[in-house]
Amino acid sequence: MAQAIIEFIDLHYNDAFIGNYCNIISNTFQAENTILDFSIYPNPATDYFNLISSQNNVEIEVYNFLGQKLISEYSLGQSIKIDHLPSGYYSILLRQHGKILGSSKLIKEN
């Protein structure tokens, strides 16, 4: 029984599975044409990440691998705090006036 549980957890919750699941979520949110060229750093991150973008007043949304929105903030050039999030893979989505401008992946480490 214990071995079956270990195999189940390894199969469904290992890094490869979570990474692939993040790809699915990221692709679901992907804009048809990425309108905004941007970068996030540091990546992997521990306590915060920064966004470099040519646009101001962009809504930044952070989603976990289950597709749940965890953070929604407007970018005003400040760092986005993620110290309260557990380690893992996250999707970053940028919106402006309800339109998806771009998406990226973020790795959160402790």
What report would you give on this structure?
- The protein has 110 residues and is α+β, with helices and mostly antiparallel strands.
- Helices cover 25% and strands 40% of the residues.
- Strands 4-3-6-7 form a four-stranded antiparallel beta sheet.
- The protein is globular, with a radius of gyration of 15 Å.
- The protein starts with a helix and ends with a strand.
Summed up:
It contains two helices and seven strands; from the N terminus they run H-H-E-E-E-E-E-E-E. The protein has 110 residues and is an alpha+beta fold.
Tell me the number of helical segments per DSSP (H or I, 4 or more residues long): 2
Beta strand %: 35-45%
Query: What is the strand arrangement across the widest sheet?
Result: 4-3-6-7
Number of strands: 7
Please mark out the parts with pLDDT under 50 across 5 or more consecutive residues, or reply none.
Answer: none
Element string (H = helix, E = strand): HHEEEEEEE
Average pLDDT value?
78
Radius of gyration: 15 Å
- 3D shape: globular
* Largest sheet properties: 4 strands, antiparallel
